[in-house]
Specification:
Helix content: 25-40%
Number of strands: 22
Structural class: alpha/beta
Radius of gyration: 24 Å
CATH superfamily of the largest domain: Aldehyde Dehydrogenase, Chain A, domain 1
Low-confidence stretches: none
Largest sheet: 7 strands, mixed
Distance between the termini: 67 Å
CATH class of the largest domain: Alpha Beta
CATH topology of the largest domain: Aldehyde Dehydrogenase, Chain A, domain 1
Shape: globular
Strand order of the largest sheet: 14-15-16-13-12-18-19
Mean pLDDT: 94
Length: 497
């Protein structure tokens, strides 16, 4: 069976939603559109508000019965490892689905994140979880463990699952983002309700099918695509849900946080970003390629992408000339073509957002260096040219607001201190990058950057290293020990022998 025919077969099997251990037909449907061709590639069952309520009840019952949390840590780890293995066996189908569902070029670095990091990282996480203590010393100093009356006291820390976890994921890296919520939450013993983006629900349904095949009990993991937002609101407000983990825009994240507050739920929010990358004089020759890399990474649709380039003022003209020349050769088109370097944005609305912000940039004194419009030779598909805008003022809207498209700004700075100040002049605090041959200087700058993650010359994506933002970029962390403990309740037990 060819890859395309196999994909058609797989998509036909995913047209219903996965609730309480079975694939169900809700009657309503979501049309999944290929953003490169504008063709409908699948029709997925859309969960109603009633479906969400029934799924929440099934999850609550599974928590209360301890059908999953009552299993040993090793049993849960083995089931989740099996689930990851089942997904890995569908590697080619996953890649082809992501080409068609989100417009990710097959041979791009973004595809390595979409699939390889989405599977390999959780594998590491399973092994890390196996060695994390469920109980540990509470940290009471030795000289405090004997009271004045001679009693010996002790304190321990215990970790229990939170309960019912709602995981609300974004469209840009759907498998990756979903796995980094689902895997740690399930490992910790929670029951999970996954609400994927209606723009990209297919890989979430594949996770649901793999979980069922691996032996995750009914009610413990359910996938609920929906067309609107009523179900998502229910997940954030229903008292039967104990926690919401959300990845998406800051605007929607604020709503989720407010909704969750009504029942005092725990929230973990991975929100927007407007990250800067600072090039010190000895690494300014890397700036043009970095700008191209941002645009070529899923057409700039990544919250952590450093879309603000800060270069020494005296080098700015040269950087812009290099950018103009390099961007001429970026091949844009159908991501199914193995020679294509950049695909479309996800929808016509997202393309219009790019157009609107380019216009705002010009109104506020910016100058288009390259790009800035729809490609002339691509009449079909939601394509937007890789775009670089020369700005003199960090107050320009294109430097302050998340666009989520292939739009990069270049701004000059005078001193490293000024560069740090420009980088910090943002409501966001997700990530930042510093490029320098002098690591000591770069590390000193990194300590003054207001962001949850700062990469000096290179980034790290590992199950052992956490990721998360400050300020308008969110609350809590994903990955690392922090990304597991967020799905657990801490109990301190004090006792005397």
């Amino acid at each position: 069976m060819t890859g395309n025919n196999r994909l058609v077969t797989e998509l036909d099997r995913l047209t219903a939603l996965h609730v309480d251990g079975t694939l169900q037909d809700s009657g309503a449907a979501i049309d999944v559109v290929n953003p490169a061709t504008e063709a409908v590639i699948a029709r997925v069952g859309a969960a109603s508000t009633e479906d969400f309520s029934l799924a929440i009840e099934a999850a609550r019952n599974s928590v209360d019965s301890r059908i999953w949390s009552g299993r040993s840590r090793e049993e849960r780890a083995s089931v989740i490892a099996r689930m990851i293995g089942i997904l890995a066996a569908e590697d080619e189908v996953l890649r082809e689905t992501l080409v068609r569902e989100v417009g990710c070029p097959r041979n791009s670095m973004a595809m390595k994140v979409q699939v390889d990091a989405a599977l390999n990282g959780p594998r590491e996480f399973v092994e890390m979880f196996r060695h994390l203590p469920e109980e540990e010393d509470g940290g009471l100093p030795i000289n405090s463990r004997i009271t004045p009356s001679g009693c010996v006291v002790q304190s321990i820390r215990r970790y229990e699952p939170v309960g019912v976890v709602a995981a609300i994921s974004a469209y840009n890296f759907p498998l990756f983002l979903s796995m980094w919520k689902v895997v740690p939450a399930l490992l910790a013993g929670n029951s999970v309700l996954l609400r994927p983006s209606p723009l990209a629900p297919l890989t979430a349904l594949m996770i649901g099918r793999a979980a069922q095949a691996a032996g995750v009990p009914p009610g413990v993991f359910q996938v609920l695509p929906e067309k609107g937002d009523e179900g998502g609101i229910l997940l954030s407000t229903d008292p039967r849900v104990d926690m919401v983990g959300f990845t998406g825009s800051t605007r929607v994240g604020k709503l989720v946080m407010a909704q969750a507050a009504t029942t005092v739920k725990r929230v973990q929010l991975e929100l927007g970003g407007k990250s800067a990358q600072i090039f010190l004089p000895d690494r300014v020759h890397l700036a043009a390629a970095a700008a191209a890399g941002v645009c070529q990474t899923l057409a700039g649709q990544g919250c952590a992408l450093a879309t603000r380039l800060l270069v020494p003022q005296e080098s700015k003209a040269q950087v812009l000339a290099e950018v103009r020349e390099l961007f001429r050769n970026i091949r844009i088109g159908d991501p199914a073509d193995p020679t294509v370097q950049m695909g479309p944005v996800i929808s016509s609305a997202q393309r219009e957002r790019c157009e609107r912000y380019v216009a705002l940039a010009i109104e506020n004194g910016g100058r288009i260096v390259t790009g800035g419009k729809r490609p002339a030779n691509l009449d079909t598909g939601y394509f937007f040219e890789p775009t670089v805008i020369d700005i003199a003022d960090n107050a320009n809207p294109v430097a302050q607001e998340e666009i989520f498209g292939p739009v990069v700004t270049v701004m000059g700075y005078g001193t490293p201190e000024e560069a740090v100040g420009i980088a910090n002049d943002s409501e966001f605090g997700l990530s930042a990058q510093i490029h320098s041959g002098d690591v000591r200087v770069a590390l000193d700058m990194a300590r003054r950057i207001h962001a949850g993650t700062v990469n000096v010359n290179a980034g790290v994506m590992s199950a052992h290293v956490s990721f998360g933002g400050w300020g308008a970029s969110g609350l809590g962390r994903e990955r690392g020990i922090d990304g597991l403990r967020v799905y657990q309740n801490l109990q301190v037990v004090n006792f005397s022998a």
